[in-house]
Amino acid sequence: MNSRLLIAFLCLAAVAPGCVVHDHDDDDIGYAGDVTFRWTFEGFRCDEDRDIAGVNIHIPGERLEKNGEYPCSPNGFDGIVLHDFAPGVYNFTIDGVSWDGDILYTASGTFRVDGDVTVDVDMVTTAPPASFAKVSWLFPPNNVSQSPNCTQAGVVAVDVRVDEGDWERIDCARGYGSNRIESPPLAPGEHTLEFVAVDRDGNPWYYYSDVIITEIGVTTNHTASMWAIGGASIRWDIFVGSTRLSCADARISEVRINFIDVFTGELVYGLAGDAHGCNDAPVVYEFLRPGRYEVAMQARSSDGNYSTPQAERPVIEVKAHQFPGPNAALPVPLVRQ
To answer: How far apart are CA 335 and CA 259, in angstroms?
Structure first.
């Protein structure tokens, strides 16, 4: 029996993990040996990147057990021992795969067998290079300066978030003017930025939101020209004719609130409005631009539609840095149509 058939027979008999069947010629010079692959993922171990479910190895000309698909850390070892390789030079490709089978990391190379050998592989991500945004902020003119700094604007910190993620509070001076704050890595494409400038008591004074577009491997600079904000507090009364109803009586579970600019007709919350539970009143708003607004509401129930008649829409004046609380809520009628 030649060596290739003997090894194949022994592999089948032992059912050994990591066993391989070789197609190399018997004339290879050197010693057979085991190949130990040890892997990392851009320096991280398996337990440091929980997105990695396993590692796939492909060696042309070799038939690996389980088609070369192995757990990321079998028995607590970030690697695998492949047994009984004939002497010679081998090419390989190795991939770190997700639980869905997507390739997250990859590497390729060669190794020589002349006795036992260890192959250390640090795979690199297959994701495209990240993009970044560097952001700064400015404040509108006030009675102190036409271009107030943080102190002149009464701001000690700015809360920043990307794509409705977690807010991060940053010292105001770090991002003011020519100073810039770098974002976490961002996927290329559209991203929503939000900024809330707060005073020493944590009260919001200025706000800004916008959409930016980032590109692969490119840093996008963006300056947030913040605007002053004020607040409003809203509650509602539900009527059928002259009879006032509770939410339960009216069978209303959700209401939608909107502010209509009396000069431009612009809807602050679009056609859909800002949704709240019917029993959530009063609702306090903190990020409105100063101005005069009509307040309109609408709701649906199994008994019919409710809305605020145009002639009965109350007008509210939002003033910069003034934030009415729940006890100062403006009543808005909701009348069944």
So the answer is: 18
Nearest 5 degrees, angle CA 287-CA 323-CA 275?
A: 50
Token match 């970044």: residue?
132
Is the peptide bond prior to 282 cis by the omega test (within 30 degrees of 0)?
yes
User: Which H/E stretch holds residue 4?
Assistant: helix 3-14
Distance CA(39)–CA(123), nearest Å, equals 7
| pLDDT of 241 over the 80 cut | yes
- Helices vs. strands in the chain: H and E counts, helices first: 3, 26
Report d(CA 272, CA 293) in Å as an integer. Answer: 17
Sequence-distant (≥ 6) Cβ neighbours of residue 68 within 8 angstroms? 56, 57, 58, 59
- CA distance linking residue 18 with residue 22, whole number of Å: 13
Enumerate domains of the chain plus CATH numbers: 3-125 (2.60.40.10), 132-228 (2.60.40.2100), 231-336 (2.60.40)
* pLDDT for residue 10: 39
List, for residues 257-275, the tens digit of each pLDDT value: 999 999 999 999 999 999 9
Q: pLDDT (tens digit, 9 = 90+) per residue, 128-179?
A: 777 889 999 999 999 999 999 999 999 999 999 999 999 999 999 999 999 9
CB–CB of 19/12 below 8 Å? no
Place of tokens 């809807």: 267
Pairing outcome for strands 227-228 and 204-214: antiparallel
- Helical H segments across 180-322, by residue range: 247-250
Residue type, 33: G
Query: Which one-letter DSSP state was computed for residue 14?
Result: H
| 8-state DSSP, 17 | T
What residues form DSSP beta bridges with 283?
A: 234
